[in-house]
Amino acid sequence: MTRFLGYVVAGLANGTIYALVALGVVVVYRISRVVNLAHGAMGVFAAFCFHYVFIQSWGAPVAVASLLALLVGAGLGIGVERAFVGPVRRRGTLVTLVMTVGVLLLLTELTVQIWGPNTPPIASVFPDKAIKFGGTGVTAHQFATAGSVLLLGIGLYFLLNRTRYGTAIEAIAEDPGAARIVGLPVRRIVTATWAIGGASAALAGILYIHLNTLDQISLTFVLISSLVAAVLGGFNSLPLAVIGSLGVGVTFSLAQGYVRTPGFAELVVFAALLAILLVRHRSQSTLETVPEF
Amino acid sequence: MRRLSSRPAGLVVVAVAAVAWPFMTSKTIHFYGALSAIYALVALSLVILAGWTGQVSLGHAAFLGFGVYIGQKVLHAGVPVVLAVVIVAAFGAVVSLVLGVPSLRLRGVYLTIVTLAFGAACQRYFFQLNSLRGYRSSTVPRPSVFGISTQSDRGLYFVVLVVLALALAMAWNLRRSDTGRALFAIRDSEDAAQALAVRVAPYKIGAFALSAALATTAGLFYGMLYGATPGPDQFGILQSFFLLALPVVGGLESLAGAVVGGAFLATAQPLVNLFHIRLFLATAVALILVALSGHDGVTGMTREMWHAVGDALGLRTRVRYGSFVPEEPVETNGKAHARLRLRGAPPVGSLVRLRIRGAGSNS
Questions:
Q1: In this predicted structure, what is the pLDDT of residue A72?
Q2: Which of A101, A267, A287 sits opposite B241 (nearest CB)?
Q3: Is B106 touching A (CB cutoff 8 A)?
Q4: Per-residue b/e over B115-139, b at no fewer than 16 CB within 10 Å?
């Protein structure tokens, strides 16, 4: 039983990272109707900047470097929207998806080209001191991760569902032309939303790679789990995406814990995705294409 | 009526060149020839899926991997290559149904997400299984096909070339058939296709199955070319992104694009080594540039340049109507001819409609 609880807690800890990634992906999807496959690569790029540039080259304190990394993430989000995704969005879902794949490949390979295929130890603002929790140790870092996900999730929920900004995002996603006619600053809102998405990717990058020292493609594997969770909410609902992410995290952890075959957890997540899609009714398929305008 | 492009003559030239060049070059280049043909097969599978049906698969490296591993087992059992192709292709199609049926009955990018998760599951689980993969770097036999020895890369190249030619001919016919038109209609608008009484889901699932079958077939030859089974990381999700770049760079809609894209990126490896750039980085840059350019890959750009030259010289007067899928963009150049040819008696009550729009048309 202790073992089970341990796996659940570890799964929840990883699930919060999935939730962080899922939040970023859903927010970007809400405004642009684009599944940003480059999300994980953006996070990894920011995390590597954090380690190699801000900490090693500049010798910045961890807290300052973390803030700079978030800025890098936001900048990446804006840059990707302005330079790559925005120009091709009119030409349909296919080209847009291909473009995000291109950006994903570009950022991942750029990271390898610049800093080599290393797995740097990413520092964390929060201490790794274990806090006893139901027989299993949870570090302060993990608690902080969960806390930041909770804060970000609640903040985004209110932003999207309770403010004029959220209504504007919905309007722009539905019909950018009409949104411009009623006087919404469309470009500024799109840019700001992508910046939020990019910053959340950077946050996920530094928090996740601190937990498990990993290579450049790792966060894209996280992205896959997050996409599975986001599918549960039809890419629209923030609460469902978070709950789904925690569920995927726990499932992943249990599968990894009880079946020692390597990669069994990936198989379970894949099977879960097929099951989710099978029970989804045709009329519920909210994952719509780019609005035609 | 003079025409700038004459398709049959061009095809003959290309075919003769494809057969003749290995006899004039050294052995090391034959390897890249065979690799080009294999990549062209993969690119063709993605042209049918992405270019014609509008669905993006990010799991094609996994299908390639299944082709390698299953193909190795089948060939070791002493099955002749022709039969092995059939078995491996059927296997790929069946696997694709497991992915395609749940995701393609829905609308949207679900197939992309499912294939991505499938790629991850293959890289981390299926291809790690010793029962599937065999132990570290098992050899792949290279049996002869109809008397052609595949022990040399040149022989293998010719075998793959025949398979590629058959696949291209099949795709060419598919494109001209009602099925092809239905696929294009689905790509352009699922709503419109449904309104035309096209049953969307079966077509999408069928296109995905065909695409997967072609990709696994390519995998069989990929394994034979390397002579050993590569590790699972050779068929990871990163490779799937790379494979998607093949047809996009070549031209996502055309068969020529598949061939050009495959050849381009297979021969890019020795090229980028000269400059110490990673192959995938160069590919990513090429992919982004092509997507930003708004043209349909390298072949699309060439075609448009060709048309511009033709228009400048006043050589292009051909107008083709009467098809859902115009082979080329219709441009009239002020001297339009319209020709209508009917094969057999038209059904009673048929209606032929010709609409000419644009400035200065007073016909």
A1: 93
A2: A101
A3: yes
A4: bbbbbbbbbbbbbbeeebbbeeeee
Q: Averaged in consecutive runs of 10 residues, what is the pLDDT profile of chain A (293 residues)?
A: 80 87 90 88 90 83 87 94 88 88 92 81 72 68 84 89 88 85 89 93 86 76 87 81 89 84 83 84 50 35
Q: How far is A140 from chain B (nearest CA, A)?
A: 30
Picking from A259-268, B166-175, B220-229, B332-341, which range would have the lowest pLDDT averaged per residue?
B332-341
Angstroms from B1 CA to nearest CA on chain A:
36
User: Hey, of A28, A270, A276, which one would you mutate to test binding to chain B, going by the most B CBs within 10 A of its CB?
Assistant: A270
B283 vs A105, A278, A280: nearest CB:
A105
A220 with B292: Cβ contact below 8 A: no
Q: Which of B103, B113, B277 to mutate to test the interface with A (most CBs of A within 10 A)?
A: B113
* Domain range annotation of chain B: 7-301
Q: What is the pLDDT of residue B339?
A: 67
Q: The CATH number of A2-117+135-284 is which of 1.10.8, 1.10.1660, 1.10.3470, 2.60.40?
A: 1.10.3470
Are B112 and A91 inside 8 Å of each other by CB?
Answer: no
Give the right CATH number for B7-301 from 2.40.360, 3.20.20, 1.10.3470, 1.25.10: 1.10.3470
Please report the pLDDT score of residue A202 as a whole number.
92
Q: Does B192 touch chain A (CB under 8 A)?
A: no
CB contact B52 to A (< 8 Å) = no
| B199–chain A Cβ distance below 8 A for any pair | no
Q: Is A62 exposed, middle or buried (0-12, 13-18, 19+ CB in 10 A)?
A: middle
Q: Return the pLDDT at B331.
A: 56
Q: What is the ipTM for the molecules in this complex?
A: 0.87
Taking the Cβ of residue B278 and every Cβ of chain A, the question of whether any pair is shorter than 8 Å is answered with yes
Predicted TM-score (pTM) of this structure = 0.85
Report phi then psi at B198, rounded to 5: -85, 125
Q: According to the model, what pLDDT value does residue B168 have?
A: 93
Cβ separation of B125 and A108 shorter than 8 Å? no
**Residue B4, SS3 per DSSP:** coil
In angstroms, the first-to-last Cα distance of chain B is: 21
Mark yes or no for CB contact A277/B54 under 8 Å: no
